[in-house]
């Protein structure tokens, strides 16, 4: 059996810290990914082609960091294509019902549990033709709407779903809240996060969310969240560039 370190660590209840990659440049992962437990490669909202996503997965492996690859949709052909790149985890956005979760699992698991097609080039090259039974894939379902939060218990109950990942931004959109609203700034938002946590824990699933600072990480951990994304290339570039520009303008009197 080829180990999936990220899945094993979550099963042990360990906290795993990750960084997001949205720009298609392997060098970004190589320079910022070291020391993190996983790299979240965003194939939904990032600027990735197929080749770029594949190279991102390879770059993460090259520095010894596990990859969590977010796919753009639920279609079985898409799920198979991205899973065949060989990431440790596949994150699926907008899983709103148990039926959708079941369909996602079917698309990512091999027969008899699912319908995933055999023959992925990279996984076969890495693990041999036994990869379908000798490697495990971590399946992460995103809970991003009020509907999904209401159905979180049923989604978590689906055999094959390993982790629920609370998505705060789309949840805010779903609830009609401003983007700058903190988790503790609206009772409905906090309740959705707590609903997600209770559902995952009731069925022995892992929990993930975005934690841009220490305060949010402490809040999330208190609710049982362990797969924590702590920021990414875009905000790091933006904030550091703005800070340096401010320093220099102050120095030159502009």
Describe the structure in brief:
With 254 residues, this protein is α/β, with parallel strands linked by helices.
Describe this structure in words.
The chain has helices at residues 5-11, 26-32, 50-62, 76-83, 98-108, 121-127, 131-134, 146-150, 152-156, 168-175, 187-202, 214-222, 233-252, and strands spanning 16-21, 38-42, 66-70, 89-92, 138-143, 163-166, 206-210, 227-232. The longest helix has 20 residues, at 233-252. Helix 2 links the parallel strand 1 and strand 2. Helix 2 runs parallel beside helix 3 (50-62) and helix 4 (76-83) crosses helix 5 (98-108). The protein contains 13 helices and 8 strands. The chain has 254 residues and is α/β, with parallel strands linked by helices. An 8-stranded parallel β-barrel has the order 1-2-3-4-5-6-7-8, surrounded by 8 helices. The mean pLDDT is 96.
Keywords for this entry:
13 helices; globular; 47% helix; eight-stranded parallel β-barrel; 254 residues; alpha/beta
Question: Which helices and strands occur, and which strands form pairs?
Answer:
Layout: H1 5-11, E1 16-21, H2 26-32, E2 38-42, H3 50-62, E3 66-70, H4 76-83, E4 89-92, H5 98-108, H6 121-127, H7 131-134, E5 138-143, H8 146-150, H9 152-156, E6 163-166, H10 168-175, H11 187-202, E7 206-210, H12 214-222, E8 227-232, H13 233-252
Parallel strand pairs: 1-2, 1-8, 2-3, 3-4, 4-5, 5-6, 6-7, 7-8
Helix pairs in contact: 2-3, 4-5, 10-11
Q: Quickly give the structural class.
A: alpha/beta
Tally of helical segments = 13
Strand proportion = 15-25%
Distance between the termini: 61 Å
């Amino acid at each position: 059996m080829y180990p999936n370190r990220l899945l094993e660590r979550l099963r042990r209840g360990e906290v795993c810290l990750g960084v997001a990659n949205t720009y298609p440049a392997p060098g970004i992962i190589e320079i910022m990914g070291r020391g993190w437990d996983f790299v979240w490669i965003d194939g939904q909202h990032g600027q990735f082609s197929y080749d770029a996503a594949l190279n991102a997965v390879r770059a993460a492996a090259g520095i010894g960091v596990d990859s969590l690859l977010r796919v753009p949709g639920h279609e079985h052909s898409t799920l198979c294509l991205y899973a065949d790149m060989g990431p440790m985890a596949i994150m699926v956005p907008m899983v709103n019902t148990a039926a959708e979760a079941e369909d996602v699992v079917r698309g990512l698991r091999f027969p008899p549990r699912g319908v995933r097609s055999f023959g992925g080039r990279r996984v076969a090259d890495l693990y041999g033709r036994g990869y379908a039974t000798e490697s495990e894939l971590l399946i992460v379902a995103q809970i991003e709407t009020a509907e999904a939060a209401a159905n979180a218990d049923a989604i978590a109950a689906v055999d094959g779903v390993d982790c629920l990942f609370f998505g705060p931004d789309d949840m805010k959109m779903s609830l009609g809240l401003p983007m700058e609203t903190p988790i503790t700034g609206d009772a409905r938002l906090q309740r959705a996060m707590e609903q997600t946590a209770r559902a995952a824990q009731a069925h022995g699933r892992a929990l993930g969310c975005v934690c841009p600072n220490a305060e949010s990480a402490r809040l999330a951990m208190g609710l049982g969240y362990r797969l924590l994304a702590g920021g990414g290339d875009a905000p790091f570039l933006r904030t550091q560039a703005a800070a340096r520009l401010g320093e220099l303008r102050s120095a030159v009197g502009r």
